[in-house]
Amino acid sequence: MKKIIAVLASVAMLSSVFSGCSGGNQQTSTSSGAASGGTSAPVSINYYGGWTGGDLDKMSALVKKFNESQSEVQVTFTSLQWSQMFTKFLADYQAGSTPDVVAMHSFELGQFVDMGVLSSDAIKSLNLSSSDYIKTAWDGTLLNDVQYGVPLDVNMHALYYNKDLFKAAGIASAPTNKEELIAAAQKLTVDANGKNATESGFDAANIKQYGFGFLQNHHAFYQAFALMNQQGYNPFTDDMTTLSLDSEKTSAAFQFLEDLVYKYKVTPAGEKSPIDDFKAGSVAMVIDGNWQLSGVDSAAKFDWDTAAYPQIFSEKAVWGASELLAIPNNKDADKVKAAQTFIKWLSDNSAEWALSGQIPANVKAQQAATKIKGIEAYNSELDYVKFLPAHKKSVKVFSSAAPSPILTAAQNAMLNDKDPAEITKQLESDINKVLAG
After folding, report:
1. Closest Cα partner for 221 from 254, 267, 189?
2. 3-state secondary structure of 129
3. Residue 259: inside a domain, yes or no?
4. In a 10 Å sphere around its CB, with 0-12 CB exposed, 13-18 middle and 19+ buried, how is residue 212 labelled?
5. What residues have CB less than 8 Å from 410, skipping those under 6 apart?
6. Beta strand segments in 169-255, E
7. pLDDT tens-digit series, residues 324-360
8. Fewest CB within 10 A of the end CB: N or C in the chain?
9. Span between the terminal Cα atoms of the chain, in Å
10. CA distance 162 to 167
11. pTM here?
Protein backbone atom coordinates (compact mmCIF):
# COMPACT_ATOMS: atom_id res chain seq x y z
CA MET A 1 0.00 0.00 0.00
CA LYS A 2 2.96 2.34 0.53
CA LYS A 3 3.65 2.19 -3.20
CA ILE A 4 0.04 3.13 -3.93
CA ILE A 5 0.24 6.19 -1.68
CA ALA A 6 3.56 7.22 -3.20
CA VAL A 7 2.28 6.88 -6.74
CA LEU A 8 -0.92 8.84 -6.19
CA ALA A 9 1.10 12.05 -6.53
CA SER A 10 2.76 10.98 -9.76
CA VAL A 11 -0.51 9.78 -11.26
CA ALA A 12 -1.77 13.34 -10.95
CA MET A 13 0.84 14.28 -13.56
CA LEU A 14 -0.95 12.28 -16.24
CA SER A 15 -2.66 14.17 -19.05
CA SER A 16 -4.57 12.61 -21.86
CA VAL A 17 -2.70 11.79 -24.99
CA PHE A 18 -5.86 12.05 -27.05
CA SER A 19 -8.28 14.73 -28.05
CA GLY A 20 -11.67 14.30 -26.41
CA CYS A 21 -10.10 12.96 -23.23
CA SER A 22 -9.87 16.20 -21.31
CA GLY A 23 -12.31 17.53 -18.80
CA GLY A 24 -13.23 16.20 -15.42
CA ASN A 25 -16.95 15.54 -15.26
CA GLN A 26 -17.72 12.03 -14.10
CA GLN A 27 -19.88 10.12 -16.54
CA THR A 28 -21.69 6.96 -15.53
CA SER A 29 -23.57 4.38 -17.57
CA THR A 30 -25.56 2.24 -15.18
CA SER A 31 -26.93 -1.26 -15.58
CA SER A 32 -30.28 -0.38 -17.14
CA GLY A 33 -31.87 -2.48 -19.82
CA ALA A 34 -30.88 -5.94 -18.62
CA ALA A 35 -32.25 -8.85 -20.60
CA SER A 36 -35.06 -10.73 -18.92
CA GLY A 37 -35.28 -14.42 -18.18
CA GLY A 38 -32.60 -14.90 -15.54
CA THR A 39 -33.55 -16.61 -12.29
CA SER A 40 -30.84 -15.02 -10.14
CA ALA A 41 -29.63 -11.50 -9.67
CA PRO A 42 -26.89 -10.44 -12.09
CA VAL A 43 -23.36 -9.88 -10.86
CA SER A 44 -22.72 -6.13 -10.78
CA ILE A 45 -19.25 -4.87 -11.68
CA ASN A 46 -17.62 -1.46 -12.01
CA TYR A 47 -15.63 -0.40 -15.06
CA TYR A 48 -13.33 2.65 -14.97
CA GLY A 49 -12.12 4.46 -18.09
CA GLY A 50 -10.54 7.79 -19.01
CA TRP A 51 -12.60 8.87 -22.01
CA THR A 52 -14.66 12.02 -22.42
CA GLY A 53 -16.33 13.60 -25.44
CA GLY A 54 -17.08 11.45 -28.47
CA ASP A 55 -14.99 8.52 -27.23
CA LEU A 56 -17.08 8.40 -24.07
CA ASP A 57 -20.32 8.33 -26.05
CA LYS A 58 -19.15 5.33 -28.08
CA MET A 59 -17.87 3.42 -25.04
CA SER A 60 -21.04 4.16 -23.07
CA ALA A 61 -23.08 2.78 -25.96
CA LEU A 62 -21.00 -0.40 -25.97
CA VAL A 63 -21.51 -0.88 -22.23
CA LYS A 64 -25.24 -0.35 -22.66
CA LYS A 65 -25.33 -2.88 -25.48
CA PHE A 66 -23.51 -5.45 -23.34
CA ASN A 67 -25.89 -4.92 -20.43
CA GLU A 68 -28.89 -5.41 -22.70
CA SER A 69 -27.43 -8.48 -24.40
CA GLN A 70 -27.56 -10.79 -21.38
CA SER A 71 -28.78 -10.99 -17.78
CA GLU A 72 -25.83 -12.49 -15.89
CA VAL A 73 -23.55 -9.44 -15.63
CA GLN A 74 -24.38 -5.76 -15.33
CA VAL A 75 -21.68 -3.11 -15.74
CA THR A 76 -21.61 0.35 -14.22
CA PHE A 77 -19.25 2.50 -16.28
CA THR A 78 -17.42 5.48 -14.77
CA SER A 79 -15.25 7.67 -16.97
CA LEU A 80 -13.09 10.58 -15.84
CA GLN A 81 -10.13 12.37 -17.39
CA TRP A 82 -7.31 9.81 -17.23
CA SER A 83 -5.30 11.27 -14.36
CA GLN A 84 -8.41 11.71 -12.23
CA MET A 85 -9.57 8.20 -13.04
CA PHE A 86 -6.24 6.67 -11.99
CA THR A 87 -6.30 8.65 -8.74
CA LYS A 88 -9.82 7.34 -8.06
CA PHE A 89 -8.81 3.80 -9.02
CA LEU A 90 -5.91 3.70 -6.56
CA ALA A 91 -7.89 5.36 -3.78
CA ASP A 92 -10.78 2.93 -4.24
CA TYR A 93 -8.40 -0.02 -4.43
CA GLN A 94 -6.74 1.00 -1.18
CA ALA A 95 -10.16 1.44 0.44
CA GLY A 96 -11.21 -2.08 -0.53
CA SER A 97 -13.72 -1.05 -3.20
CA THR A 98 -11.67 -1.66 -6.32
CA PRO A 99 -13.20 -1.39 -9.77
CA ASP A 100 -13.46 -4.74 -11.50
CA VAL A 101 -12.16 -3.55 -14.88
CA VAL A 102 -9.85 -0.60 -15.54
CA ALA A 103 -8.64 0.83 -18.84
CA MET A 104 -5.16 2.30 -19.36
CA HIS A 105 -2.51 2.93 -21.99
CA SER A 106 0.26 0.41 -22.49
CA PHE A 107 2.99 2.77 -21.30
CA GLU A 108 1.09 3.26 -18.02
CA LEU A 109 1.03 -0.47 -17.28
CA GLY A 110 4.43 -0.66 -15.59
CA GLN A 111 3.61 1.49 -12.59
CA PHE A 112 0.50 -0.55 -11.74
CA VAL A 113 2.36 -3.84 -12.14
CA ASP A 114 5.07 -2.48 -9.85
CA MET A 115 2.41 -1.64 -7.26
CA GLY A 116 1.02 -5.16 -7.47
CA VAL A 117 -2.58 -4.10 -8.05
CA LEU A 118 -3.31 -6.02 -11.28
CA SER A 119 -4.20 -9.70 -11.66
CA SER A 120 -2.22 -11.50 -14.35
CA ASP A 121 -3.95 -14.77 -13.41
CA ALA A 122 -7.36 -13.34 -14.34
CA ILE A 123 -6.02 -12.44 -17.78
CA LYS A 124 -4.17 -15.72 -18.25
CA SER A 125 -7.27 -17.78 -17.56
CA LEU A 126 -9.05 -16.10 -20.47
CA ASN A 127 -6.84 -18.28 -22.71
CA LEU A 128 -6.51 -15.60 -25.36
CA SER A 129 -4.50 -16.17 -28.53
CA SER A 130 -1.97 -13.62 -29.72
CA SER A 131 -2.99 -14.36 -33.32
CA ASP A 132 -6.38 -12.77 -32.64
CA TYR A 133 -4.81 -9.36 -31.94
CA ILE A 134 -2.60 -6.81 -33.65
CA LYS A 135 0.93 -7.79 -32.63
CA THR A 136 2.05 -4.41 -31.31
CA ALA A 137 -1.11 -4.11 -29.21
CA TRP A 138 -0.69 -7.64 -27.85
CA ASP A 139 2.94 -6.97 -26.96
CA GLY A 140 1.83 -3.81 -25.16
CA THR A 141 -0.07 -5.91 -22.61
CA LEU A 142 3.05 -7.91 -21.64
CA LEU A 143 5.65 -7.02 -19.05
CA ASN A 144 8.52 -9.43 -18.40
CA ASP A 145 6.64 -11.95 -20.57
CA VAL A 146 3.60 -11.83 -18.26
CA GLN A 147 0.28 -10.60 -19.63
CA TYR A 148 -1.63 -8.07 -17.53
CA GLY A 149 -4.35 -6.88 -19.89
CA VAL A 150 -6.44 -7.44 -23.00
CA PRO A 151 -5.66 -5.16 -25.97
CA LEU A 152 -8.47 -2.76 -26.84
CA ASP A 153 -7.17 -0.44 -29.56
CA VAL A 154 -4.18 1.22 -31.21
CA ASN A 155 -3.68 4.92 -31.90
CA MET A 156 -0.90 6.71 -33.78
CA HIS A 157 0.17 9.74 -35.78
CA ALA A 158 -0.31 10.18 -39.53
CA LEU A 159 -0.43 13.04 -42.03
CA TYR A 160 -3.62 15.00 -42.74
CA TYR A 161 -3.54 17.02 -45.96
CA ASN A 162 -5.81 19.49 -47.75
CA LYS A 163 -6.34 18.10 -51.25
CA ASP A 164 -7.80 21.36 -52.55
CA LEU A 165 -4.67 23.30 -51.56
CA PHE A 166 -2.49 20.55 -53.00
CA LYS A 167 -4.32 20.80 -56.33
CA ALA A 168 -4.03 24.59 -56.38
CA ALA A 169 -0.28 24.32 -55.74
CA GLY A 170 0.19 21.68 -58.43
CA ILE A 171 1.17 18.92 -55.98
CA ALA A 172 -0.04 15.53 -57.17
CA SER A 173 0.13 13.44 -53.98
CA ALA A 174 0.97 13.46 -50.29
CA PRO A 175 4.68 13.50 -49.40
CA THR A 176 6.28 10.22 -48.38
CA ASN A 177 9.84 11.28 -47.49
CA LYS A 178 11.92 14.21 -46.26
CA GLU A 179 12.56 15.79 -49.64
CA GLU A 180 8.94 15.57 -50.74
CA LEU A 181 7.68 16.87 -47.40
CA ILE A 182 9.91 19.95 -47.39
CA ALA A 183 9.21 20.70 -51.05
CA ALA A 184 5.44 20.41 -50.60
CA ALA A 185 5.44 22.40 -47.36
CA GLN A 186 7.42 25.21 -49.01
CA LYS A 187 5.06 25.42 -51.99
CA LEU A 188 2.10 25.45 -49.61
CA THR A 189 3.51 28.16 -47.33
CA VAL A 190 2.22 31.45 -48.76
CA ASP A 191 2.72 35.05 -47.65
CA ALA A 192 0.22 37.90 -47.78
CA ASN A 193 1.42 38.82 -51.27
CA GLY A 194 0.76 35.35 -52.65
CA LYS A 195 4.39 34.26 -52.85
CA ASN A 196 5.32 30.81 -51.56
CA ALA A 197 8.43 29.91 -49.61
CA THR A 198 10.32 28.83 -52.74
CA GLU A 199 9.89 32.17 -54.51
CA SER A 200 12.09 35.26 -54.48
CA GLY A 201 10.65 38.01 -52.30
CA PHE A 202 8.78 35.62 -50.01
CA ASP A 203 7.96 37.46 -46.75
CA ALA A 204 8.49 35.00 -43.87
CA ALA A 205 7.28 37.65 -41.42
CA ASN A 206 3.89 37.92 -43.07
CA ILE A 207 2.64 34.39 -43.73
CA LYS A 208 -1.07 33.82 -44.28
CA GLN A 209 -0.98 30.08 -45.00
CA TYR A 210 1.48 27.55 -43.61
CA GLY A 211 2.41 24.35 -45.35
CA PHE A 212 2.88 22.11 -42.32
CA GLY A 213 1.80 22.00 -38.69
CA PHE A 214 2.10 19.81 -35.63
CA LEU A 215 1.55 19.98 -31.90
CA GLN A 216 4.57 21.51 -30.20
CA ASN A 217 3.93 20.14 -26.72
CA HIS A 218 4.72 16.55 -25.66
CA HIS A 219 3.59 15.41 -29.09
CA ALA A 220 6.71 17.06 -30.52
CA PHE A 221 8.71 14.60 -28.44
CA TYR A 222 6.52 11.78 -29.77
CA GLN A 223 7.63 12.84 -33.24
CA ALA A 224 11.27 12.94 -32.13
CA PHE A 225 10.73 9.43 -30.73
CA ALA A 226 9.43 8.31 -34.14
CA LEU A 227 12.37 9.94 -35.91
CA MET A 228 14.84 8.23 -33.58
CA ASN A 229 13.20 4.91 -34.44
CA GLN A 230 13.40 5.80 -38.13
CA GLN A 231 17.17 5.73 -37.62
CA GLY A 232 16.92 2.24 -36.12
CA TYR A 233 17.41 3.65 -32.63
CA ASN A 234 15.20 3.23 -29.57
CA PRO A 235 16.98 3.55 -26.21
CA PHE A 236 13.83 3.33 -24.06
CA THR A 237 13.10 -0.05 -22.45
CA ASP A 238 10.71 -1.49 -19.89
CA ASP A 239 13.54 -2.15 -17.42
CA MET A 240 15.97 0.71 -18.02
CA THR A 241 17.79 1.88 -14.87
CA THR A 242 19.95 4.51 -16.58
CA LEU A 243 19.80 6.10 -20.01
CA SER A 244 22.63 7.00 -22.37
CA LEU A 245 21.37 8.73 -25.50
CA ASP A 246 23.08 8.56 -28.88
CA SER A 247 23.73 12.26 -29.36
CA GLU A 248 23.99 12.11 -33.15
CA LYS A 249 20.72 10.26 -33.74
CA THR A 250 18.73 12.03 -31.04
CA SER A 251 20.00 15.43 -32.18
CA ALA A 252 19.12 14.63 -35.80
CA ALA A 253 15.52 13.97 -34.77
CA PHE A 254 15.17 17.29 -32.95
CA GLN A 255 17.08 19.14 -35.68
CA PHE A 256 14.58 18.09 -38.33
CA LEU A 257 11.67 19.39 -36.26
CA GLU A 258 13.44 22.67 -35.53
CA ASP A 259 14.29 23.16 -39.20
CA LEU A 260 10.64 23.02 -40.20
CA VAL A 261 10.01 26.07 -38.01
CA TYR A 262 13.24 28.04 -38.04
CA LYS A 263 15.03 27.10 -41.29
CA TYR A 264 12.32 26.38 -43.83
CA LYS A 265 9.68 28.61 -42.18
CA VAL A 266 6.89 26.21 -43.14
CA THR A 267 5.56 25.60 -39.61
CA PRO A 268 4.41 28.35 -37.22
CA ALA A 269 6.42 28.64 -34.02
CA GLY A 270 4.39 27.89 -30.91
CA GLU A 271 1.41 26.53 -32.84
CA LYS A 272 -1.20 25.59 -30.24
CA SER A 273 -3.92 23.79 -32.20
CA PRO A 274 -2.74 22.65 -35.61
CA ILE A 275 -5.80 20.49 -36.16
CA ASP A 276 -8.03 23.56 -35.80
CA ASP A 277 -5.76 25.48 -38.16
CA PHE A 278 -6.10 22.59 -40.61
CA LYS A 279 -9.89 22.59 -40.31
CA ALA A 280 -9.87 26.34 -40.97
CA GLY A 281 -7.76 25.88 -44.10
CA SER A 282 -4.85 28.00 -42.84
CA VAL A 283 -2.42 25.03 -42.62
CA ALA A 284 -2.21 22.62 -45.54
CA MET A 285 -0.77 19.56 -43.74
CA VAL A 286 -0.68 18.49 -40.10
CA ILE A 287 0.56 15.54 -38.12
CA ASP A 288 -2.08 14.26 -35.70
CA GLY A 289 -3.82 11.14 -34.48
CA ASN A 290 -6.68 8.96 -35.68
CA TRP A 291 -8.77 10.27 -32.79
CA GLN A 292 -9.16 13.50 -34.84
CA LEU A 293 -10.74 11.82 -37.88
CA SER A 294 -14.41 12.28 -37.04
CA GLY A 295 -13.87 15.89 -35.98
CA VAL A 296 -12.05 16.77 -39.19
CA ASP A 297 -14.66 15.03 -41.31
CA SER A 298 -17.50 16.99 -39.72
CA ALA A 299 -15.74 20.38 -39.73
CA ALA A 300 -13.66 20.57 -42.91
CA LYS A 301 -15.25 22.48 -45.81
CA PHE A 302 -12.69 21.18 -48.31
CA ASP A 303 -11.50 17.90 -49.79
CA TRP A 304 -9.01 16.19 -47.48
CA ASP A 305 -7.36 12.88 -46.85
CA THR A 306 -4.67 11.22 -44.74
CA ALA A 307 -1.37 9.58 -45.62
CA ALA A 308 1.17 7.52 -43.74
CA TYR A 309 3.64 9.35 -41.51
CA PRO A 310 6.52 10.39 -43.81
CA GLN A 311 9.75 8.42 -43.74
CA ILE A 312 12.39 11.05 -42.96
CA PHE A 313 15.28 8.70 -42.26
CA SER A 314 16.26 5.16 -43.30
CA GLU A 315 13.38 3.16 -41.78
CA LYS A 316 9.63 3.47 -41.39
CA ALA A 317 8.45 4.23 -37.86
CA VAL A 318 5.70 6.23 -36.19
CA TRP A 319 4.80 6.94 -32.57
CA GLY A 320 1.72 5.19 -31.26
CA ALA A 321 -0.05 4.08 -28.11
CA SER A 322 -2.37 1.25 -27.23
CA GLU A 323 -5.24 1.09 -24.77
CA LEU A 324 -5.86 -2.08 -22.81
CA LEU A 325 -8.30 -3.49 -20.27
CA ALA A 326 -6.96 -4.86 -16.98
CA ILE A 327 -8.51 -6.66 -14.01
CA PRO A 328 -7.41 -5.45 -10.56
CA ASN A 329 -6.80 -7.98 -7.80
CA ASN A 330 -10.10 -9.07 -6.31
CA LYS A 331 -10.98 -11.83 -3.83
CA ASP A 332 -14.55 -12.01 -5.15
CA ALA A 333 -14.36 -14.83 -7.71
CA ASP A 334 -17.81 -14.04 -9.10
CA LYS A 335 -16.80 -10.47 -9.90
CA VAL A 336 -13.56 -11.62 -11.50
CA LYS A 337 -15.50 -14.05 -13.70
CA ALA A 338 -17.98 -11.31 -14.58
CA ALA A 339 -15.12 -8.96 -15.45
CA GLN A 340 -13.64 -11.60 -17.73
CA THR A 341 -16.98 -12.07 -19.47
CA PHE A 342 -17.34 -8.34 -20.08
CA ILE A 343 -13.77 -7.83 -21.31
CA LYS A 344 -14.01 -10.73 -23.74
CA TRP A 345 -17.32 -9.41 -25.09
CA LEU A 346 -15.96 -5.86 -25.42
CA SER A 347 -12.91 -7.10 -27.32
CA ASP A 348 -14.99 -9.26 -29.66
CA ASN A 349 -17.48 -6.44 -30.29
CA SER A 350 -15.04 -3.55 -30.58
CA ALA A 351 -15.80 -2.94 -34.27
CA GLU A 352 -18.23 -0.26 -33.13
CA TRP A 353 -15.40 1.38 -31.16
CA ALA A 354 -13.84 2.19 -34.54
CA LEU A 355 -16.61 4.72 -35.19
CA SER A 356 -14.80 7.07 -32.78
CA GLY A 357 -11.65 6.82 -34.91
CA GLN A 358 -10.02 4.09 -32.83
CA ILE A 359 -8.34 1.09 -34.45
CA PRO A 360 -9.61 -2.07 -32.70
CA ALA A 361 -6.79 -4.32 -31.50
CA ASN A 362 -8.94 -7.38 -32.15
CA VAL A 363 -8.14 -8.46 -35.72
CA LYS A 364 -11.65 -9.69 -36.55
CA ALA A 365 -13.21 -6.55 -35.09
CA GLN A 366 -10.81 -4.38 -37.05
CA GLN A 367 -11.66 -6.18 -40.28
CA ALA A 368 -15.39 -5.88 -39.59
CA ALA A 369 -15.26 -2.23 -38.56
CA THR A 370 -16.82 0.45 -40.72
CA LYS A 371 -13.96 2.15 -42.55
CA ILE A 372 -14.37 5.81 -41.63
CA LYS A 373 -12.72 8.37 -43.89
CA GLY A 374 -8.97 8.63 -43.40
CA ILE A 375 -8.47 5.46 -41.36
CA GLU A 376 -6.63 3.49 -44.04
CA ALA A 377 -3.45 5.54 -43.65
CA TYR A 378 -3.36 4.59 -39.98
CA ASN A 379 -4.04 0.94 -40.72
CA SER A 380 -1.08 0.97 -43.09
CA GLU A 381 1.25 1.89 -40.21
CA LEU A 382 0.37 -1.00 -37.92
CA ASP A 383 3.44 -3.03 -38.84
CA TYR A 384 5.89 -0.35 -37.76
CA VAL A 385 4.19 1.65 -35.00
CA LYS A 386 6.43 2.17 -31.95
CA PHE A 387 5.20 2.39 -28.35
CA LEU A 388 6.80 4.04 -25.34
CA PRO A 389 7.94 1.47 -22.77
CA ALA A 390 5.79 0.16 -19.92
CA HIS A 391 8.43 1.21 -17.40
CA LYS A 392 7.35 1.66 -13.79
CA LYS A 393 8.35 5.33 -14.06
CA SER A 394 7.08 6.00 -17.57
CA VAL A 395 4.29 8.18 -16.22
CA LYS A 396 6.89 10.59 -14.83
CA VAL A 397 9.43 10.28 -17.65
CA PHE A 398 6.89 10.74 -20.45
CA SER A 399 4.40 13.01 -18.69
CA SER A 400 2.82 15.81 -20.69
CA ALA A 401 2.83 18.03 -17.60
CA ALA A 402 5.64 20.49 -16.89
CA PRO A 403 8.43 20.10 -15.97
CA SER A 404 8.63 16.56 -17.34
CA PRO A 405 11.78 15.59 -19.28
CA ILE A 406 10.02 15.20 -22.61
CA LEU A 407 8.02 18.43 -22.36
CA THR A 408 11.17 20.37 -21.48
CA ALA A 409 12.92 18.88 -24.51
CA ALA A 410 9.98 19.67 -26.79
CA GLN A 411 9.75 23.27 -25.61
CA ASN A 412 13.50 23.80 -25.93
CA ALA A 413 13.32 22.61 -29.52
CA MET A 414 10.09 24.15 -30.73
CA LEU A 415 9.94 27.39 -28.75
CA ASN A 416 13.58 28.16 -28.00
CA ASP A 417 15.38 26.77 -31.10
CA LYS A 418 18.00 25.35 -28.76
CA ASP A 419 21.02 23.41 -30.02
CA PRO A 420 19.76 19.81 -30.46
CA ALA A 421 22.95 18.45 -28.88
CA GLU A 422 22.22 20.47 -25.75
CA ILE A 423 18.59 19.33 -25.80
CA THR A 424 19.80 15.73 -25.99
CA LYS A 425 22.22 16.22 -23.11
CA GLN A 426 19.54 17.77 -20.90
CA LEU A 427 16.95 15.14 -21.86
CA GLU A 428 19.35 12.37 -20.86
CA SER A 429 20.12 14.09 -17.55
CA ASP A 430 16.46 14.81 -16.75
CA ILE A 431 15.37 11.24 -17.47
CA ASN A 432 18.20 9.79 -15.39
CA LYS A 433 17.13 11.96 -12.46
CA VAL A 434 13.63 10.47 -12.67
CA LEU A 435 14.97 6.93 -12.98
CA ALA A 436 17.20 7.43 -9.94
CA GLY A 437 14.46 9.00 -7.82
Report:
1. 254
2. coil
3. no
4. buried
5. 216, 217, 218, 219, 220, 221, 224
6. 190-191, 207-209, 213-214
7. 999 999 999 999 999 999 999 999 999 999 988 999 9
8. C
9. 19
10. 9
11. 0.91
